[in-house]
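PROTEIN DESIGN WORKSHEET
SECTION A - STRUCTURE
LENGTH: 209
TOKENS:
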């Protein structure tokens, strides 16, 4: 658990940590595969990370989930991420229309309803089970609470991840996080499944403001 009073300090610390993890993978001869979180919260982290000394040409990015809207839309996660990482020469895959690989590093946010990626609790038990047990690395979902269909990473995609990061800010988000840690119910709060990984304990990054 990495907690900060302001998001500026969080962005500095988290980007430094991600830089070290990416470079360590490259030093081992890997081409790191990185699943990114959407939304506006991670943009400052991505911008700082993009300015760091990394052989970006060896890196492969994709969004952990995205809305089925045109590329360039302000509601498209991939649009946001490419703007934040503008100027680097990494490889990009669009999870909505291209196959993705199992990530080495995955960054997630979480909502006040306990969702992460596009694993929304109102998908219902059967659909959530499918996200958690399928061998497919990505699935299209239609959460009733959301206005667009989404393509999302599945639990199977994370089986080989070496680093999982959870990013949030605000007291309400911390309350949700604690409720997830106190319960093993992955249906009412699907983000809980991230703490069931066989080998990896997620790093939580949270700021009060």
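SECTION B - SEQUENCE
RESIDUE ASSIGNMENT:
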């Amino acid at each position: 658990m990495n907690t900060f009073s302001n998001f500026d300090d969080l962005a500095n610390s988290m980007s430094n940590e991600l830089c070290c993890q990416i470079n360590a993978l490259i030093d081992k001869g890997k081409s790191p595969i990185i699943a990114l979180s959407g939304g506006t919260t991670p943009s400052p982290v991505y911008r700082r990370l993009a300015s760091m000394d990394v052989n970006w040409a060896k890196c492969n990015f994709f969004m952990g989930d995205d809305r089925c809207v045109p590329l360039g839309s302000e509601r498209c996660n991939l649009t946001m991420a490419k703007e934040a990482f503008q100027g680097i020469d990494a490889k990009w895959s669009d999870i909505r229309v291209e196959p993705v690989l199992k990530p080495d590093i995955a960054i997630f946010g979480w909502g006040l309803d306990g969702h992460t990626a596009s694993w929304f609790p109102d998908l219902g038990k059967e659909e959530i089970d499918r996200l958690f047990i399928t061998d497919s690395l990505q699935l299209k979902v239609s959460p009733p609470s959301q206005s667009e269909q989404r393509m999302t990473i599945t639990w199977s995609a994370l089986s080989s991840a070496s680093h999982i990061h959870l990013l949030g800010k605000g007291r309400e988000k911390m309350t949700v996080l604690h409720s997830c840690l106190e319960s093993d119910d992955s249906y009412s709060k699907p983000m809980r499944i991230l703490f069931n990984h066989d080998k990896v304990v997620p790093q939580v990054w949270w700021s009060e403001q």
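SECTION C - NOTES
The mean pLDDT is 96.
The beta strands are 2-4, 33-36, 60-63, 65-67, 91-93, 105-108, 138-141, 150-153, 163-169, 203-207.
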